Amino acid sequence: MRFIEYGTIKKKAFNRFALVYPDVYRAGNSNLGLHYVYNIVNDKEGFSIERFFLDFERSIETQDMLKNFKALLFSLNYEYGVINLLKILKKNNIPLLRENRKEHLVITGGPLNVNPFTLDDVFDIAFIGDAEKSLVEFLDIYSTLDDPKNQIDEFAKIEGLYIPKIHKENKIRRRVEKLDYHPLYEPIQWGDFEESFNKTFLLEVSRGCRNRCSFCLTGNALGPYRERKKEELINIVKEGQKRTKFEKIALIGSDMPSSLNEIIKSLSELGFQISLPSLKLGDINEYTIPLIGQETITLAPESSESLRAQIGKFYKDEEFFEKINLIKKYSKYVKLYFIFGLPGEEQKDLDEIINFIKQSRKIIRTKSSFNPFVPKPHTPFEDYIFDFAELKEKMKYITTNIKDVRIEDLKGAFIQYVISLGGSDVGRFIIDGVENDTNLTYSSFNKAIEKEDIVFPSKEKEWKRIGI
């Protein structure tokens, strides 16, 4: 299998950092946040950074081992990343607990840091919110220190950093930045090594979301909505062309700008195929769909029409079917995403979802997936209880009444739930499991809760210390 990347940075520097995505390359190299950190650190004189993934145990840039880097930056985007981070440290003979590490700085960032307290005994520093400027400020201070690990209090002045050793009870402010920086060196895969966006430049057109759906972390906890102007996007792409090689551009953003059609047209005129991994119903029109030319268009009805309105998505079923009929003219498939187990969900809601899918299948080839609702911190639904038995019955009902749908593993979703809304006691349970090679399964988490080894959901709600 050929591994061919364009846009890779191989740089010699005195301060060598490791950038670890605790999942496989396919997922990690498709993460734009990873490219941000990769560029920011490499842009800094005297610093370099090299990437590691679960399936790349040595760095991609120099094939060096993780233990040879003094600062280890972990990107946390999903709950299982917490477990994988600990496993990576152990596999590389790096002590898991902060108090036992003499040299290595363990630093975390990413959306999961809206509740960093699960790993409160592990990391030295957590970046909260946007890190474009706080990371530069961190590097500036780091370069002046003889022993950053033992001079960690020097970083306390930086807004957007949580340092457990210093911020014992303090409230931590999330950092929010304007979109005036974008990575230009994006390592893009051109070989046979599969990733989610082969030969594709990831272009962030917006950040945040104008909707505040009750279940969603993005609209409630990851900062206000911001977008880039068309002229800026064109300039980013042209500058990116000088540093890497790509055929396609993926527009990244949970909520697309109102000028989306103009943006697509202008970027297409540069000779690139445009893809939109995330589309809202209002983004789909006679102009957009034929121009992007995607074989599959993804829609997220989420639930029944009535429950959809209760959670903050005010689209009627007939609006969805108007768009599905439009999609049929230009694409082969529609993919539908649903959440089951939302607060207030009744039998009639499941029946309406099932009928929705059946009706869509009469119009176009339809792929459907269901995810059990996992409550997130800082959202209106953070206090909702994940009822495993009830969800299991609902899952059975769905699969009995409609075939060929994908449903996320319920046991895995429960583990996500515990990590998402857990406190430092959950972290200690996971640390102990990794240290002792114990299988961290649904059963083991459930037993720990029953024995009150962990108190869940966290009564203290430690995540409230993060100022959102």
Task: Describe the SSE topology.
Blueprint: E1 5-6, E2 15-21, H1 25-28, H2 32-43, E3 47-53, E4 71-75, H3 80-91, E5 105-109, E6 125-127, H4 132-142, E7 161-162, E8 172-173, E9 188-189, E10 200-204, E11 206-207, H5 217-221, E12 226-227, H6 230-241, E13 248-252, H7 260-268, E14 273-275, H8 288-292, E15 296-302, H9 305-310, H10 317-330, E16 333-340, H11 347-363, E17 365-372, H12 388-401, E18 405-407, H13 410-420, H14 424-435, H15 442-450, E19 466-467
Parallel strand pairs: 2-3, 2-4, 4-5, 5-6, 8-19, 10-13, 13-14, 15-16, 16-17, 17-18
Antiparallel strand pairs: 1-9, 6-7, 11-12
Notes on the protein architecture:
The protein has 468 residues and is an alpha/beta fold. It has helices at 25-28, 32-43, 80-91, 132-142, 217-221, 230-241, 260-268, 288-292, 305-310, 317-330, 347-363, 388-401, 410-420, 424-435, 442-450, and strands spanning 5-6, 15-21, 47-53, 71-75, 105-109, 125-127, 161-162, 172-173, 188-189, 200-204, 206-207, 226-227, 248-252, 273-275, 296-302, 333-340, 365-372, 405-407, 466-467. It has a six-stranded mixed sheet with strand order 3-2-4-5-6-7, with helices on one face. β16 (333-340), α11 (347-363) and β17 form a beta-alpha-beta unit. The mean pLDDT is 94. This is Ribosomal protein S12 methylthiotransferase RimO. InterPro entries: Elp3/MiaA/NifB-like_rSAM (IPR006638), Methylthiotransferase_CS (IPR020612), Radical_SAM_N2 (IPR045784), rSAM (IPR007197), rSAM_horseshoe (IPR023404), rSAM_sf (IPR058240). Its cofactor is [4Fe-4S] cluster.
